[in-house]
Amino acid sequence: MVMANEEQLALLKQGVQSWNAWRKKIPGKKIDLSGAVLQGANLKGANLKGAVLQGVNLKGAKLRYAHLSHADLDSANLSDAYLRYAYLHRVFLRYADLSEANLCDTHLNEANLSGANLSRAVLRYADLSGADLSDADLSGAVLHDAVLNNAVLRDANLSEANLSGAVLHDADLGDAVLTSANLSGTNLSDAILSGTILRDAILRGAILHMANLSGADLSDADLRDADLCDGVLTDANLYMADFSGANLRHADICNAVLIETVFADVDLGKVKGLAECLHHGPSTIDYRTLARSGQLPESFLRGIGLSNTFIDYIPSLLTNQPIQFYSCFISYSHQDEEFAKRLHADLQDKGVRCWYAPEDLPIGAKMRVDIDQAIRKHDKLLLILSEHSVNSQWVESEVESALEKERQSNKLVLFPVRLDDTVMTSSDGWAGLIKRSRNIGNFCNWKDYDAYQQVFERLLRDLKPALTEQA
Fold this sequence. Notes:
Blueprint lengths: L5 H8 L2 H10 L231 E2 L3 E2 L14 E2 L4 E2 L1 H7 L4 H6 L4 H12 L8 E4 L5 H13 L4 E2 L1 H4 L6 H11 L2 E6 L1 H4 L2 H17 L4 E5 L10 H9 L3 E2 L6 H14 L4 H4 L1
């Protein structure tokens, strides 16, 4: 075991004034006080720069204004010590015990505190810029308004810590534990919070601009009025997280888990990955969010628990304007699926509500019954005619359902489009009836971009309700 230099220790015990005067005379002298017992000592303003103080016992010591820059205090006991205004620039405090110590206003920039015990320590207004706090225990610590820019807190325990108003710009908190921590108003811009546990944390009004929260646990977190602009929340757990009033512009929530998540008074219009969220239960969205966000992915709206009927009427509810397009059920032969998928995607992109069996039919559904219901629920049957569909009993059955709906409602339901000339040569049965009684959109050259777009625009115009119908 390394022992302190007894001569130096005796001189220090004579008092700070004598000690500082001696050090001034021989500034380059190596100081070694390793293992010294200085419990409760009054070392206010002591010059201990660069001193070797490994394993020293400074429990309850008074070190206000002490100069400890570049000192080696690894494994030292500073529990309950008073270090306010102390200078600890680039100090080594690895695995040191600083529990319940008063470190308010201290200069700990670039200090190495990895593995240190800072539980319940008070670090208000402390400067910890660039400090290494990896694996440190800061549970219950008070870091109110502290500066931790570029600090490393990877795997640190900050559960129930108070970091309100602290600045952690570009800090690394990867895999840290911040359960029930208070981070209200904290600046975490550009911070790394990937895999961080923020369960039940208070992040109200926090600045998380461009922060990386991928895979973070934000369950029950309070993120009201937080700034998450350009933030990354991919694969995050957002169970019961509250984003009311938050700024989520350009944030990425792809594959985030949502259940009872609150999106009140939030603009979701520029949020990335909404369609890819994993909905493990319903979530909350309010009128203000819908009004601010514009058109949102239907898969997201369905995932949070809105019914298809409500989704259909969102545009008219928000703008007090009629519904822009009829909703459609697309009938086709599986051999024409490439075209059907393209048409479905383009109609959805233009705000037309579409349904077709391969994408929308639930697993285990009773096919015939569910498709009949889908046809009844949608305004129009968009019929894709080809040599394959004209000879399909399945398509024939769908056409019969649509024609029956026309007879009952006395409204036009069937909207036919063709991919070849087969229907134009038909004279018998339902195909011949459609040829004789309907104007059929011509998508025969659908693989030609310009030709496709021309017919598609015409179809969109036809799918707009007439003003007399909307009145």
